[in-house]
TrEMBL record:
This is DNA base-flipping protein. Residues 11-93 form the Methylated-DNA-[protein]-cysteine S-methyltransferase DNA binding domain. InterPro entries: ATL_DNA_repair, MethylDNA_cys_MeTrfase_DNA-bd, MethylDNA_cys_MeTrfase_DNAb, WH-like_DNA-bd_sf. Coiled coil: none annotated. It comes from Pseudoalteromonas holothuriae. The lineage of its organism: Bacteria, Pseudomonadati, Pseudomonadota, Gammaproteobacteria, Alteromonadales.
């Protein structure tokens, strides 16, 4: 029996992966934004879980997903934070006070 507490069904997973793959270079999307676009507005944490569990060899641009405050969700001291910031910076995304301007860089699907 499937656990009904925040289940991540296959269709939702596929929609999220498709959306992430659609985020253009130099743009970002928020976890909640992706959940809304996938038809599950209250599932931003599920989006985070999917990203956390991406296969190591995934080519999805996971680094383009940030939180609704325009921040990278990893701890600023972490290697993953540095990796994500480096990837975004290489795409032309500018950080000011460790934040990305959503007004400037948010993908409008």
């Amino acid at each position: 029996m499937q656990n009904n507490k925040n289940p991540i069904d296959t269709a939702f997973k596929e929609r999220i992966y498709t959306l992430i793959g659609s985020i253009p270079m130099g743009k970002v999307a928020a976890y909640g934004q992706l959940a809304r676009l996938a038809g599950a507005p209250n599932q931003s944490r599920a989006v985070g879980r999917l990203l956390k569990n991406l296969p190591a060899k995934s080519t999805l641009p996971w680094h383009r997903v940030i939180n609704s405050q325009g921040k990278i969700s990893f701890s600023i001291e972490s290697e993953k934070y540095q990796q994500q910031r480096k990837l975004l910076t290489a795409e032309g995304v500018i950080f000011k006070n460790n934040k990305v301007s959503l007004k400037t860089y948010q993908w409008l699907a």
